[in-house]
From TrEMBL:
Keywords associated with the record: DNA-directed RNA polymerase, Nucleotidyltransferase, Transcription, Transferase
Domain called HTH HARE-type: residue spans: 6-76
Membership in a protein family: Belongs to the RpoE family.
Any one Gene Ontology molecular-function term assigned to this protein's record: nucleotidyltransferase activity
GO cellular component annotations of the record: DNA-directed RNA polymerase complex
Record-given protein name: RNAP delta factor
Biased composition range(s): Acidic residues: 144-154
Domain of life: Bacteria
Comp. bias (Basic and acidic residues): 92-112
Source organism of this protein record: Mycoplasma wenyonii (strain Massachusetts)
Length: 173
C-alpha cells in the first residue's frame, strides 16, 4: 500500500484532537505524536516525510497557525477568534504598488553604490552614452525585406518521396 501525505495529515489531525484539543501546540510536539501513531509509515525514514508534512500542515484548513510557532485546531476556535488570527496573517502580507516597489529597488541600488565606502567598479552612467544611442537610432533606416516562400524553392527528388499506396488513402464511400 502506498502512503500519502494526506493520510499522514489525517493521522496528525486525529492525534492533535486526542492529545491537544483546545490548547495550542508546536510543530515538534505534533510531529512526535503523529509519528508515534503512524505505524504504517515507519517503514520509510522520517526524513522522507517531515518536509512534505510541514508543507501540508501550512495549507490544511483544519490547522491554524496562531503565531510564535504555535498551532491550533480550527474546530476548537470560535469564528471570531479564527477571523482575528487569519486577519493578522492577511495584514502581514501587504501588496505593494508597482511604482513604489520600483522606487524602492532604485533606492536600494543607489544605497549599494554608495555602500561601504568603496568605489564602484562600474562607471557612472552619463548622458553622453544616451545621446549617442539616440543619434544612432535616428540615423538608422529600416531595411526593406523581400518576402520569401521557402516551399517554392524546395525540390524533393522522387526517390526520397514516400510512396503512397491505396491503403494509405482514406476511403469515404
Amino acid at each position: 500500500m502506498r502512503h500519502s501525505t494526506r493520510d499522514l495529515m489525517n493521522i496528525a489531525y486525529e492525534s492533535a484532537k486526542d492529545n491537544f484539543g483546545n490548547t495550542s501546540f508546536n510543530f515538534a510536539a505534533l510531529w512526535a505524536k503523529t509519528w508515534s501513531v503512524a505505524k504504517e509509515f515507519r517503514k520509510d525514514s522520517i526524513e522522507n516525510w517531515i518536509g512534505a508534512f510541514y508543507t501540508e500542515l501550512l495549507i490544511d484548513p483544519r490547522f491554524v497557525y496562531v503565531g510564535n510557532q504555535q498551532w491550533r485546531l480550527r474546530e476548537f476556535m470560535d469564528y471570531n477568534e479564527y477571523l482575528k488570527e487569519i486577519g493578522k496573517r492577511a495584514q502581514d502580507v501587504q501588496l505593494k504598488e508597482p511604482e513604489s516597489a520600483e522606487g524602492e529597488a532604485k533606492e536600494k541600488v543607489e544605497v549599494k553604490k554608495r555602500g561601504r565606502g568603496r568605489k564602484s567598479a562600474l562607471p557612472e552612467p552619463t548622458d553622453t552614452i544616451a545621446t549617442v544611442v539616440e543619434a544612432q537610432e535616428k540615423d538608422t533606416q529600416p531595411i526593406e525585406t523581400e518576402e520569401v516562400n521557402l516551399d517554392e524553392d524546395m525540390v524533393i527528388p522522387a526517390s526520397t518521396r514516400p510512396q503512397e499506396s491505396e491503403d494509405d488513402e482514406d476511403n469515404y464511400e
